[in-house]
Amino acid sequence: RGCPSMMMMSMIGLALLALISAAYADTYRPIVLWHGMGDTCCYPFSMGKIEKLIQANLPGVYIHSIKVGETIADDEVNSYFMNVNEQVDLVCEMMKNDTNLSKGFNAIGFSQGGQFLRAYIERCNNPPVYNLLSVGGQHQGVFGLPRCMGANHSLCEVMRKLVNSGAYEEYVQDHVTQAEYWQDPLNMAEYLAKNVFLPDINNQLPNKNATYKANFESLNKLVLVLFTEDTMVQPRESEWFGFYTEGQDKAITNMRNSTLYLEDWIGLRTLDEAGKVTQLSCVGDHLQFSDEWFVENLVPFLKG
Predict the structure, then answer these.
(1) Residue 188 backbone phi and psi in degrees, to 5
(2) Phi, psi (5° rounding) for residue 223?
(3) Is 139 a catalytic residue?
(4) Among 45, 46, 235, 266, which one has the highest count of C-beta atoms within 10 angstroms of its own C-beta?
(5) Is the CB of residue 18 less than 8 Å from the CB of residue 35?
(6) Looking at residue 1, what is its pLDDT?
């Protein structure tokens, strides 16, 4: 009886690899990624690199990297100029229609993707998020124009000019993503009255949304990553739910002393007191982390 042919051996090898991948896929909960400003679902140097890094450590895991728009170019433009509420609505449908996510998933939001995924949890959460990892997300918003770090600086400069012209102008609120999480500690009344996104998901308005709180409290784990030398997010403490104390823009009120936490508007205190909130710091500027840091500090939260 002759030896098996090379083609036969290759086919057997591929079949074994497929079986191993399938076994691993059943082991790991699916993962959803939402990129930040000026990025896309699929740039090989950003989200594409993150996908490969995760898959190298969690073989066979299913990953859905969110793309808002028909093309990668649309996705990048929409990260600057699409109303956040519309983006979240689209993603709610996108998640519901992805049958690979039907039993729930872990989620990682990078920069503004962090608070956008939190909005998904509060408003939809169908299918549900198990662990939410927010990497440099601005959960209390920003009060300072971001530097331009994306691939297309011209888009970023247009955004900066529009926000600078009046963050709470109706046109800007409807069309400039970053204006929709602009929180002015010197003028809280205008912020609460005119900002179309952040006061709602932070339950800062007089009528508290009980569904938002219940959905957020359903998380198994909330991981908040702050970059210690962040020069893009002002204040960087927003990445840990801290912000400027109302009436000035120097002193910081940290998460556990904030009214949002003390009065448990979104369930953050409930999660924290149950031991479900992990605050991590990463030495470096915005989203500047090594592969080794990511694998050591974040991948363990993706194994559940």
Answers:
(1) -65, -30
(2) -115, 125
(3) no
(4) 266
(5) no
(6) 47
Q: Say what the pLDDT of residue 160 is.
A: 74
Mean pLDDT computed over every residue of the chain? 92
From the list 65, 79, 111, 258, the catalytic residue is 111
Find out whether 216 and 122 touch, Cβ atoms under 8 Å: yes
Q: What is the pLDDT of residues 115-133, one digit of tens each?
A: 999 999 999 999 999 999 9
Give kind and range of the element (H or E) at residue 162.
helix 153-166
Residue in 230, 264, 272, 285 annotated catalytic:
230
In this structure, are residues 148 and 160 in contact, taking their beta carbons and an 8 Å threshold?
yes
What does the pLDDT read at residue 187? 93
Note the residue count of the chain: 304
237 three-class SS? helix
Nearest in space to 101 (alpha carbons), one of 66, 148, 64: 64
What are the structure tokens assigned to 122, written together? 């509060």
- DSSP class of 228: T
Cβ-contact 103, 200 below 8 angstroms: no
Predicted confidence band of residue 17 (pLDDT cuts 50, 70, 90): low
Q: Average pLDDT for residues 97-103, to the nearest whole number?
A: 98
Q: Does 230 participate in catalysis according to the annotation?
A: yes
Residue 154 pLDDT class (50, 70, 90 cuts): confident
- Give the integer Cα–Cα distance in Å for 195 and 174: 9
Percent of the chain residues topping a pLDDT of 70: 89
Do you find a cis peptide bond into 127, omega within 30 degrees of 0? yes
CA distance 69 to 84: 13
Question: Can 46 be counted among the known catalytic residues?
Answer: no
Question: Which 3 state secondary structure label does DSSP give 259?
Answer: helix
